[in-house]
Amino acid sequence: MRSRAAVEPGIERPPRVASGGRLACRTGRPEAGVYLLRNTVTGRILVGSSSDLRSVRNKLDFGQSTSSPGVLDRRMASDAHEYGMGALALEVLDVLTLTAEMSPARVMADLKELEALWREKLSDVPHY
């Protein structure tokens, strides 16, 4: 069954609500940035970047709710099996300020540069 908003012009759909009661933003570009996955037992970290940080959070949440280490980078899989998915924590290190003029290639290049800066800054912490 189709909603009235889908068939009748002038009727707006209500905003989608994500888990936790927050409004899910469906307009514009997703939030891009650099993140850190930390094993809270060993202290080892994995620094990464994504053009959609929400998808990284959703992937980790899914993996933790289903105990599925397959959602992780393969370098972390053995630790996830040994210590459990609950031992992993996600931290957003930096959010890239996006402008309308930025092409997807520029966004990815800027993300790689930010990621390299954070890897250097965190070089004294054990990495995967």
Walkthrough of the structure:
The chain has helices at 4-7, 53-66, 77-83, 104-121, and strands at residues 32-39, 45-50, 88-96. The protein has a single domain, classed as GIY-YIG endonuclease (3-Layer(aba) Sandwich). It is 34% helix and 18% strand. A hairpin with a 5-residue loop joins strand 1 and strand 2. The radius of gyration is 18 Å and the shape is globular. The protein starts with a helix and ends in a 7-residue tail after the last helix. It has four helices and three strands; from the N terminus they run αββααβα. With 128 residues, the protein is of the alpha+beta class. It has a three-stranded antiparallel β-sheet with strand order 2-1-3, sandwiched between helices.
From the helix content, strand content and strand pairing, which structural class follows? alpha+beta
Number of strands: 3
- The CATH topology name reads GIY-YIG endonuclease
Major β-sheet strand ordering: 2-1-3
CATH-scheme architecture: 3-Layer(aba) Sandwich
Q: What multimeric state do the chains show?
A: single chain
Strand-residue fraction?
A: 15-25%
